[in-house]
């Protein structure tokens, strides 16, 4: 154990959020030193990745896919950072890495459990390693190709389409050869995904009847849906699924902030009537496949088939504002905090 | 077109059933002749197969997997019958066949659309062709092996376990090497499936807390569930699924009689949290695979690994009573009407 004298600001969970009251529940604290155990590394954070899925570690639910962050503990998430102190022979000071870490100036990383991956790339801006070349890109790939099994000619729909994973999902579905419809919450987002990201159509769920629009845009039914939201949007999609269609569930934003359970779609029986496949998937299950996904994704970046806009919030102290964007439709593309 | 003079009693749909008031909705009529068009065959029914899934063609729902039987028309279902008149070179009088047909003394069969299959077997009682060697057996096989992808050592659960398909599902899951738990509605059924059909455990959902019992019987979680009922039993199963488990949906008895939609399970979000696969399947999708399934199933019959009890109601006029059993928990094994 080595004690490192260092000024570290860090966010802790002061209480469990109800709905999305992050300003009340996150608390910024300071410390003057960090203990680095044998085998661990200490890194200086450059970018903190804001991901809606981490909402599930801010809940009392017993059956979340990851255990909750205990009250008073540092809040965690994916970070892009630089090694400052290494007590592990696999890492050297100065190396940049993407890893699970803390929402703080510095991250203390246990390489055994926190998936650090050295990023060493002179061709692509390293920020992409918390975007296309990170969990969002892998999730999009798995959602379209593996869980979704999308094929050329399929009618393909994605919700939260202007969000980071949604934008990537839509672009990968276009690469596969699908007709791609995005569902988003503003006219600006709908225009953007069609004009700049190659979507074939878009539905503004706040203004339009989603089911009617889907019927018009996918008259032969939807073959693949990548869901990020659940709730009434998912119900409208179920209504319009084609026989033997697939619903690949990547997120259920509608449920994240409720400590109580929300019911499944009222037309759940369509799973039987239409012989649908509904399947959940979750990026930590395929973190170990980075070396398989990233060469593919880098080729697509080079071929200009896939791109991702970043919304960068500067300053650790402004983090709650950045995080809230994910839940209030305020973001287009990837939200990061630059420390 | 040939007109055949014949006394035929037949059931028609007099009104659409609400809940399960079949005695009011089915009406027995008589006719003295039947027109047999070119290409069709007329058969004398021996056994009528009673199947809960046909409840879905007795509904106003627009999105049932099969279109509704129009009011005033003959009610249809699977029959085992003998060819009386053939206007089709593929069929000869005297041949026995399993086919889609009518709930009547005679069936008028269009071989193009009604899946007739000649049954010619001297080793096995032909009634098995509307049981193990028919849609129930194929559904059970697909549910366990293909949609369910059950493996040796899996914790396997089936609802409506003493019903025809449920009994077959449980026995096939045992052949695969699973630990098999059946959910049924009487102590008698629970005892029977364990004592006579090899189930490892049973839960009486009318007397026991299904979720608590599943927790005790499947402490490491359920790997595969073949669902015949939906509703609260399915919710208790969701609660106890293992990570990456499968819910193969073969039926949703809880929803069949409601013209309104019933919501999905309140813990639908577990599909994401546990990365579950939920998939519907439906026997007409694999009717064409009889020659693949039946040799397997016949071997298992010969090896005494699979068997099926029949509950036979005699007399066409007693059909509503037999059909009602499927929805009120009155049956063990296969219900047939002997004409």
| Unreliable stretches of chain A | none
| Greatest interface by residues involved | A-B, 33 and 33 residues
CATH architecture of the largest domain in chain A: Alpha-Beta Complex
CATH fold label of the largest domain in chain A? Quinone Oxidoreductase, Chain A, domain 1
Question: What is the CATH class designation of the largest domain in chain A?
Answer: Alpha Beta
Anisotropy-based shape of chain A: globular
The biggest beta sheet of chain A is recorded as: 7 strands, mixed
Report the CATH superfamily of the largest domain in chain A.
Medium-chain alcohol dehydrogenases, catalytic domain
Oligomer: homodimer
Structural class of chain A, please? Answer: alpha/beta
Q: Radius of gyration of chain A in whole Å, from Cα?
A: 20 Å
Strand content range of chain A: 25-35%
Overview of this protein structure:
2 copies of one chain form a homodimer. Chain A is globular. Chain A is α/β, with parallel strands linked by helices. Chain A has helices at residues 22-25, 135-147, 164-176, 187-197, 210-217, 231-239, 253-256, 270-273, 290-302, 319-325, and strands at residues 2-13, 26-36, 41-49, 76-86, 96-102, 106-109, 117-118, 155-159, 179-184, 201-204, 222-227, 241-249, 277-280, 310-314, 334-338. In chain A, strands 3, 4, 5, 6, 7, 14 and 15 form a 7-stranded mixed β-sheet that branches. Chain A has 2 domains: 2-131 and 309-338, Medium-chain alcohol dehydrogenases, catalytic domain (Quinone Oxidoreductase, Chain A, domain 1); 135-284, 3-Layer(aba) Sandwich (Rossmann fold). The longest helix of chain A is centred in the middle third of the chain and has 13 residues, at 135-147. The A-B interface holds A 56, 63-65, 230, 249-252, 255, 261-282, 285 and B 56, 63-65, 230, 249-252, 255, 261-282, 285.
